[in-house]
Amino acid sequence: MKPETGLSLILAALLLLTLAAGCGPPLETATVTGVIDGDTIVIDTGQQVHYIGIDAPELREGVEDWGAEAWRVNRHLVEGKEVVLERDVSDTAADGSLLRYVYVDKVFVNAEMVRQGLAEASSAPPDVKNDRNLGGLEAIAREAGRGMWADK
Questions:
Q1: What is the pLDDT of residue 151?
Q2: Cis before residue 126, ω within 30 degrees of 0?
Q3: Exposed, middle or buried by CB within 10 Å (0-12, 13-18, 19+), for 129?
Q4: Would you state the pLDDT for residue 13?
Q5: What is the pTM of this model?
Q6: Which of 29, 113, 121, 142 has the lowest CB atom count within 10 Å?
Q7: What is the DSSP letter of 93?
């Protein structure tokens, strides 16, 4: 094989790897038709969407401390709005809900809930793309005594 051919093959392989690295799961858009709690919404397809990487106090099974506030803030952020949904590795949870990072008006909703102390970072491998960011925001919220960290 000529040296030029080998170099061309290497360059072609590098180009394909570069393109593949930038080709993550496609982003989806949807309108939020309901807010179940601080980390779960319903979109216009009727599907539930659970926010990846966070765990907010529950509202469904009796109100946990801060559950109502997490629900209220989540409603304010997303209800009736068009959101962008980003998948990580997993598509759905065991209960059939979609697993997504959620963005609205350039706000990363998962992170905003943690930043305000209304959810804690909750790693769920293999969906770990934003774990470091969410964990850092939780540490800052704890240090500042925001939301559910106010009494601790």
A1: 78
A2: yes
A3: middle
A4: 47
A5: 0.82
A6: 29
A7: -
CA distance 137 to 104: 18
Give 13-28 pLDDT, tens digit per residue: 444 444 444 556 789 9
Three-state SS for 140? Answer: helix
Instruction: Judge whether residue 69 has pLDDT over 50.
Output: yes
Instruction: Kindly state the DSSP code that residue 26 receives in the 8-state scheme.
Output: P
pLDDT band (50, 70, 90) for residue 10: low
- Chain segment 75-120, per-residue pLDDT in tens: 999 999 999 999 999 999 999 999 999 999 999 999 999 999 999 9
Judge contact between 67 and 120, C-beta under 8 A: no
Tokens of 95: 């209960």
The Cα 134–Cα 104 span in angstroms is 17
Q: Which residue has the tokens 């770990």?
A: 128
Q: Could you tell me which of 23, 46, 37 has the C-alpha nearest to residue 98?
A: 46
For 34-82, the DSSP string reads EEEETTEEEETTS-EEEETTEEPPPSTTSPPTTHHHHHHHHHHHHTTSE
**DSSP summary character for residue 23:** -
